[in-house]
């Protein structure tokens, strides 16, 4: 295999205008907590203790990639893949567009509203009161009503088209009829009140949203209101998940040295929350030939493997990658848990992320390598780094970054127990992962946080 970080990484830095449709400029989006200043190193980038004392670098045989550099490498790899793949935007029906990124501006196809409408239930009135009330009312969805003349009123429902020459809409609670069945206003009536005029929100042709906008439920509503049945969007990156290990059970209780597979159920929805289309989850076991056949037959943009990334007797990921001539971009990361993760380029437009087999270590690999790669392939905007003070001290690794589950409480982050590589109890209760620098963090120290996709209040809550 070639040495890490070579070939097309540098070429991917410059993108032309056409590629901007599939790869939006990384514009930070606001998040809670204190932002990390642009251009400043993240807390995890410091090679020292929480008090800033430099540590002696690890020995010459430690070749793992620093955590921030590994994430940047994954982004560069995705840019190179976008350039190589030349994937065209897709036309997605509104019911299938949630979580995609707009590849064309959203321009209004009609005025909004497209006619003058009532903003409230009440009466449409013409001229000064009191008013004679027509017998028939005006409901939403009906044809244009008859014109009003001065001194006339008509019952009207919210959203209904107001008659021509309407002066205002008088709310139900602001009017009453007198003994002569004439409508009286109980407060002053201003010209145009409670009428939504045609084009109040936008005119036909106005740009509503730019290229690169993430399609949220609100975007779907706006698109529908503006006349769209489909949206032009960046296609979802296609992912195949390969679960390795003979010791894994898919049901029942652990027994006879066998354990339940936690990653098979967990990874597909997590990958979907990151913007991917998960095409298949295949269980390979500890079978080098089956792994080789599956990897070489896949046309997915990204293959994600679980386990088998170390150097044990049944760790087949490295030998298979070597056999197919893949290029290792990241071979181990200076992060705990998850140190033996890897990123390989199989083809110019195809990559493999090898996750460790321990569940929390696999999540570490998912957020370190798969998240930036998938985000870039899906043309999602990068979240702005932010930091919050830790309520408690967190023990650090001598020279590696640590990712520790935390819950957010007020203006701080509380580290959770059960944060070992094989544990899921902490991450299941967590709001985020704290990026703890080498040497650890003291109480009150501001630490960079990685939000989990279902806790950000954004599109990540959708897993299908």
UniProtKB/TrEMBL annotation:
Biased composition (Acidic residues): 10-19
Catalytic activity: adenylyl-molybdopterin + molybdate = Mo-molybdopterin + AMP + H(+)
Disordered, as annotated region: 1-74
Name by which UniProt lists this protein: Molybdopterin molybdenumtransferase
Keyword annotations from UniProtKB, A to Z: Magnesium, Metal-binding, Molybdenum, Molybdenum cofactor biosynthesis, Transferase
Matches recorded under Gene3D superfamilies: MoaB/Mog-like domain (3.40.980.10), MoeA, C-terminal, domain IV (2.40.340.10), Molybdopterin biosynthesis moea protein, domain 2 (3.90.105.10), Molybdopterin biosynthesis moea protein, domain 3 (2.170.190.11)
The organism's taxonomic lineage, starting at the top: Bacteria, Bacillati, Actinomycetota, Actinomycetes, Kitasatosporales
EC numbers for this chain: 2.10.1.1
Pathway annotation: Cofactor biosynthesis; molybdopterin biosynthesis
Role played: Catalyzes the insertion of molybdate into adenylated molybdopterin with the concomitant release of AMP.
MoaB/Mog domain mapped to chain residues: 240-376
Stored Pfam families: MoCF_biosynth, MoeA_C, MoeA_N
The keyword Glycosyltransferase is annotated on this UniProt entry: no
Bilayer-spanning residue ranges: none
Organism of origin: Streptomyces ambofaciens
Family the UniProt entry places it in: Belongs to the MoeA family.
Domain of life: Bacteria
Reported cofactor(s): Mg(2+)
Biased composition (Low complexity): 30-46
């Amino acid at each position: 295999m070639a040495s890490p970080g070579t070939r097309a990484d540098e070429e991917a830095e410059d993108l032309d205008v056409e590629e901007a449709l599939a790869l939006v400029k990384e514009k930070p989006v606001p998040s809670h907590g204190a932002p990390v200043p642009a251009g400043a190193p993240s807390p995890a980038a410091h090679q020292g203790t929480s008090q800033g004392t430099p540590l002696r670098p690890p020995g010459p045989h430690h070749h793992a990639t620093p955590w921030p550099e590994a994430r940047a490498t994954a982004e560069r790899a995705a840019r190179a893949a976008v350039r190589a793949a030349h994937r065209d935007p897709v036309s997605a029906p509104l019911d299938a567009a949630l979580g995609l990124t707009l590849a064309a501006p959203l321009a209004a196809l009609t005025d909004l509203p497209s006619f003058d409408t009532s903003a409230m239930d009440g009466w449409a009135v013409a001229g000064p009161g009191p008013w004679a009330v027509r017998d028939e009312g005006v409901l939403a969805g009906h044809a244009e009503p008859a014109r009003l003349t001065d001194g006339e009123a008509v019952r009207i429902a919210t959203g209904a088209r107001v008659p021509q020459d309407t002066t205002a809409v008088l709310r139900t609670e602001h009017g009453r009829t007198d003994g002569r069945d004439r409508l009286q206003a109980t407060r002053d009536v201003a010209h145009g009140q409670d009428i939504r005029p045609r084009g109040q929100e936008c005119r036909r042709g106005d740009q509503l949203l730019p290229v690169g906008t993430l399609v949220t439920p609100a975007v779907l509503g706006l698109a529908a209101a503006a006349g769209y049945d489909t949206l032009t969007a960046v296609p979802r990156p296609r992912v195949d998940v390969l679960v390795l290990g003979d010791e894994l059970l898919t049901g029942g209780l652990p027994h006879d040295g066998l354990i339940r597979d936690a990653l098979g159920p967990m990874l597909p929805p997590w990958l979907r929350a990151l913007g991917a289309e998960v095409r298949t989850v295949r269980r390979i076991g500890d079978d080098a030939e089956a792994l080789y056949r599956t990897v070489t037959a896949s046309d997915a943009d990204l293959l994600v493997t679980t386990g088998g990334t170390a150097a044990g007797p049944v760790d087949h990921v490295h030998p298979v990658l070597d056999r197919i001539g893949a290029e290792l971009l990241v071979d181990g990361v200076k992060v705990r848990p998850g140190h033996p993760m890897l990123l390989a380029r199989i083809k110019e437009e195809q990559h493999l992320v090898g996750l460790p087999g321990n569940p929390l270590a696999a999540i570490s690999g998912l957020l370190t390598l798969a998240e930036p790669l998938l985000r870039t392939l899906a043309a999602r905007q990068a979240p702005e780094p932010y930091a919050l003070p830790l309520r408690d001290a967190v023990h650090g690794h001598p020279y590696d970054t640590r990712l520790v589950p935390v819950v957010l409480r007020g203006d701080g982050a509380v580290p959770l127990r059960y944060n070992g590589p094989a544990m899921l109890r902490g991450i299941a209760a967590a709001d985020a992962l704290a990026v703890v620098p080498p040497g650890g963090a003291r109480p009150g120290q501001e630490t960079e946080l990685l939000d989990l996709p279902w806790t950000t209040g954004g599109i990540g809550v959708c897993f299908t």
